[in-house]
Amino acid sequence: MEPKTFHIALGSNKGDKFKNLQNAINAIYVKIGTIKLISKVYKSPAFGFESDDFYNCCLVLESDMLPQDVLCVLLRIETALGRKRTEGTGYEARVIDLDIVFVESEIINTDILQVPHPEMDKRKFVLQPLNDIASKFVHPKFNQPVIDLLQACEDESALEHLNVWLKNPKKTFDFSKYNYIAIEGNIGAGKTTLVTKMANDFNAKPILERFADNPFLPKFYEDAHRYAFTLEMSFLADRYQQISDDFSQLDLFKDFIVSDYDVFKSLIFSKITLQKDEFKLCRKLFYLMYKDIAKPELYVYLYQNTERLQQNIKKRGRDYEQNIENDYLEKINAGYLDFLKSQTDFNVKIIDISDRDFVENRADYLWLLGEICGE
Questions:
Q1: Mean of the pLDDT values across residues 359-370?
Q2: Is 166 exposed, middle or buried (0-12, 13-18, 19+ CB in 10 A)?
Q3: Residue 47 pLDDT greater than 80, yes or no
Q4: How is the beta sheet containing 348-352 ordered, strand by strand?
Q5: Which homologous superfamily does the CATH classification assign to the domain defined by 4-170?
Q6: pLDDT tens-digit series, residues 85-134
Q7: Which residues are known to be catalytic?
Q8: What is the Cα–Cα distance from 78 to 97, expressed in whole angstroms?
Q9: Closest Cα to residue 71, out of 95, 103, 41, 94?
């Protein structure tokens, strides 16, 4: 499922209010999705009842969860942080309050969820921080941007911008020491999925192997002996061209580059698939090209056992891959591990993800990020 963009409003007026907001943000990141932006923190008077002042903020969240599931997790986070709802009492003080304001440009009207939030246009303590991070976002019912809704709001509450800053939890993962990270692994290890997620979450430029454009790949799986050399030569040429082109077109707005392959892949696969004389020729051409292209500062190998690889291959459903034999996958794994053990110039991390599912389980994804960027 493609991730959706959510705008979330947060408020607290009991206990350590700033800490409550930060704890909620941390929990949202761990349990729901990536936080793209966090507004300033504002102090505002209680709205609709007499109580202590609130601390309020808003954030932009990306998640592949359904909106009703996001709401359920937000309610669980409120409970975990100490909020106790009292039926029938109307407005009340609260340790934490978490509301979905927008879900992209969707209009949702169910018994448990109304989006856009039906009262947001009347509440300055929502509109002001929302304006910090989404001033041009257009309300799907009113067809007006947030900045216009703020200017038209009749709420005269006095808001005070506090000189404190909430931390985005994704900054726990520091990739700033790398300009280029290569993610490698066997067929079905999840390389492309991980690279796509990392690029989206950490403002990286992705380089994704163009295997789908290779006309020889389906033919190779039908007749490996006949098409192995043609396949490996075409892949080597394309990998060289892609890496060269992408590094010659630097993107100043991206923080680093992450790819779902390294060009050494050509040597590893060709050693398995080619005859000895063909491999010698492939290796000679490889090293002629290799000296001219960028090298990754971090090389990550995602190890998965053969059973998990076969499950992943079946799940993604590419017709030409469905008859790949265990022996072939095991030879590839062995080829990678032998290669990596022989490398003294590479900064290599071999990470066993056989018992992890970073696609379906966000906790596993965060664990994997920690393994990649940790010392």
A1: 96
A2: buried
A3: no
A4: 204-207, 256-259, 180-185, 298-303, 348-352
A5: 7,8-Dihydro-6-hydroxymethylpterin-pyrophosphokinase HPPK (3.30.70.560)
A6: 766 555 677 899 999 999 999 999 999 999 999 999 999 999 999 999 99
A7: 260
A8: 7
A9: 103
